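> Could you send the Preprotein translocase subunit SecA prediction when you get a chance?

Sure thing. Input:
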Amino acid sequence: LAKAQLEAEGYDLSEIDERAWNEALAMAKQGLDPTTKYKDYWAKVLYEKYLECQKDAEKVKALGGLYVIGTERHESRRIDNQLRGRAGRQGDPGASRFFLSLEDDLLRLFGSEKLKTFMEKLGLPEGEPLEHPWLSKAIEQAQKKVEAYHFEIRKHLLEYDDVMNKQRETIYSQRKEILKSESIKDWIISMIEEKCEELVEEAFVESKHLEKENLEEALQKFKEIFAFTPEVDANLSKKEDLLRELKNLALKRYEEKEKMIGPDTLRGLEKYFLLTTIDTLWKEHLLILDHLKESTGLRGYGQKNPLQEYKKEAFYLFVDLMRRIKETTLSYLFRIEIKETREASKEIIEELEKEEIDNKKLQYKREDVFGKKENAVTQPVRVQKIGRNDPCPCGSGKKYKKCCGKNLEQGEIKDEVSKM
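Output:
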């Protein structure tokens, strides 16, 4: 018995405390009269309605309880059992019965073909009801097949998600460590050394001796990352010598940046650049993995395992992601420049002062020529308007229209006629 049920019947229970309502309902279930504790009208209504519900419940039990008729079986046996229990009101007397068809999706897709063949051999007419333990067993087996099918789907998706989850754990652990660290100078130095080692390995990948073309290519990549051209002896032929030269040049430039910018400022910039690069490239990487999952699914037509192909490609992409994070961060750091703005500011101030002096000279020249200041405002000439019936200002005593005004009007008429 709920408040919403009584409110739907027209009772106003909006001002009742929820705690008081629950206590009164608990007393009614224990066979106690809640009106002995609560004197309000709602307690009486609650108790009366509860007694009515109890009488109705006894009538339902006398008739055998709730009888539920189902027209379809769920794909999961667990949900079927839950629905039976809920429809039977959790242990109250009642029963349930399901009416199915062999053409339902559950039996048509996952049922046994032998069952359908057996029923056809019996020669039963269309629409004849069937009831046999074999049918119940066949339905149960079909539900087991559906459950196994869905389990394989979830397992397959979990294997795909596990690949991304491992990469996510690696990235997030690094990011968390960066945030907790006060200084990541050791990280940056390690990244510089690793990048130099990669460039040297690429230069010697084809042969044990350093070719001129490979050296030029390595120096060009070095310039793209570290933003300066390294001066390396062209006669170097050993891997160790080239690696030592590149490391020394890169670390020397890094120390120069630290002196120019300041250790504290550079530490903050290092964390900012590294975190920003990780966030940006990680988002791009997730989008690439989504596209990769779709594309590798088609490789099953080529007799290849899509999951294995996805794992392999995702690993290569993750390695490339880590490489791009290092290169981008180093590229930002080695391109930092601080320009002195004092000289520029001094030049701007001098130019503005010169402009102001020129403007003052020009203003003085104008005052000399016109004899007044440029900003003086010229006052308009005001003329008093004379009405036609007013006395004429000439002193004749006549009206203006009969005296001077008459001559003025005749002159205007003549002008108009001459224009025509």
